[in-house]
Amino acid sequence: MDYDTYAVDGAEELGPRVTIREANNVAVDFILRGADLAFANSLRRVILSEIPTIAIDLVEVESNTSVLADEFVCHRLGLIPLNSKDVDDVLYTRDCECDQYCESCSVTLTLHARCTGDDVMKVYARDLVVTGGRVNDQVGNPVITDAKGEGCVIVKLRKGQEIRVKCIAKKGIAKEHAKWMPTAAVGFEYDPHNKLRHLDLWFEEDAKKEWPPTKNADWEDPLQEGEPFNYDAQPDVFYFNVETVGGLPPDVIMQQGIKVLQQKLAAVIQELAGGDERNGDYGDGARSPDGPPPGTAYGADGGYTTPFGVGTGNASAWGGGTTPYGATPYGNSGAGW
Question: According to the lineage, what is the superkingdom (predicted)?
Answer without folding.
Answer: Eukaryota
